[in-house]
């Protein structure tokens, strides 16, 4: 049994995936927590006296984030008020169970918890959306809706920051994904540790440089309770391909994760590149690069029986929206009128179902 490389005199019980150091449990905890503290202070993520909503899914990342933020807040006197914010996507056998874990975290960490549901916000659960769209592109709906739901929850709670559990592996995967997709706009901002939600509440990533394997190790040795089942709709997520690639590369050289993040941070998009201009959605006022934001387009598609609206080129979406407008069947009047009976492209008749349309307002 080797001695702990931090020279504490104890035996090492683990090898850090990030650095290869052999450490005892206590020295690992200290190294892990100090690195998160360093990330927070170096990037000046929080101002004292502010309120932070922790996006809590019940998974390992958000559970460790909540635990470590509470610990660091007390140890280093950040003077922050911490609250938990969860999104219920309505995925049976996944989110319902993971929310039980979040409720346990709420009690254990003594933090208030707010749960926002897709059903309340959009009128649809992910189970219902998958029944319409199938198992391809479902994560597009889920991701777009979740992002907005978190911002709405943060606004409702009147918090100053929204902290998410994105870890180093997530960021590296996102860099790879944006390169593979040629998405310059996202590539340009995906490594930022602080991003603007568009509603004035900054999103921060305190675990940005923390390896996923170390998060799992930390949760294991700290005996934290978290939910580890994968989403039932996950296997078809495009991100999964980037994840497999990254895991294969990590086996060859663990530093590949940090290298990809640092490469992403150093990238500068050429000024002549065609970048989207951010504006406000004409319907829900949410920040968007289009006249109508992605969430409103996806929702309109669902509500009008055109679930593929918003999947694909924005020019095609614009044309369909304009054609619907010409048919005097805009979403506002149509969807708020019971049984209006107007024809919409691809839909035989409006039905009562449309009367319950929940365009984001
Ligand atoms: Fe949503 Fe897809 Fe994640 Fe499941 S895997 S929670 S459907 S984004």
TrEMBL record:
Catalytic activity, EC: 2.7.7.-
Domain tRNA(Ile)-lysidine/2-thiocytidine synthase N-terminal: 52-228
Pathway where it operates: tRNA modification; 5-methoxycarbonylmethyl-2-thiouridine-tRNA biosynthesis
Main location: cytoplasm
Name of the top EC class for this enzyme: transferase
Gene3D superfamilies in alphabetical order: HUPs (3.40.50.620)
One Pfam short name: ATP_bind_3
Record's GO cellular component terms: cytosolic tRNA wobble base thiouridylase complex; mitochondrion
GO molecular function, one term: nucleotidyltransferase activity
PANTHER family: ATPASES OF THE PP SUPERFAMILY-RELATED (PTHR11807), CYTOPLASMIC TRNA 2-THIOLATION PROTEIN 1 (PTHR11807:SF12)
Protein name: Cytoplasmic tRNA 2-thiolation protein 1
Annotated organism of origin: Brassicogethes aeneus
